[in-house]
Amino acid sequence: MTIEQLIRRRCRPCSGEASPLSRESARSYLGSLPDWSLSADAKSLSRDWAMRDFAAAVELVDEIARIAEAEDHHPDIHLTGYRNLRVELSTHSIGGLSENDFILAAKIETLPKRLKA
User: Fold this and answer.
1) Contact, 106 vs 71, CB < 8 A?
2) Are 47 and 86 a contacting pair, CB within 8 Å?
């Protein structure tokens, strides 16, 4: 699936009865998001950015929050060292990754980012 296809999709509610994506399926989705990393256990997806400054980092967090609320799928967001931003995605209700994680990652990719020069 391409990033453009992921962006056009919407996150769907996951029941606890659904199964997480296999490592192979997750890697297949990851092909559309080369700057994102799969965790060693293949249960989460993450990306790091070095933002220009604190204000730029908070601005991106606000934009991610807006998209996450619209999709009803919420990432873990870590801001450290005043400008180092890390976003981690996982579908907690199934204990691993779902297509929703890749949809949200793709939508985050489209956001403008003021990065450290």
Assistant:
1) no
2) yes
CATH for the stretch 20-109: 3.30.1360.20
Instruction: Give the tokens for residue 99.
Output: 């297509």
- Residues in contact with 50: Cβ distance below 8 Å, sequence separation at least 6, in sequence order: 83, 84, 85, 115, 116
Q: pLDDT tens digits for the chain (117 residues)?
A: 899 999 999 999 987 788 999 999 999 999 999 999 999 999 999 999 999 999 999 999 999 999 999 999 999 999 999 999 999 999 999 999 999 999 999 999 999 999 998
What is the spatial distance between Cα 59 and Cα 55, in angstroms, rounded to a whole number?
6
Question: What token pair was written down for 37?
Answer: 């990393």
The pair of three-digit structure tokens given for residue 58, joined into one six-digit string: 């908070």
- Tell the residue number behind the tokens 């249960």, with chain if given: 43
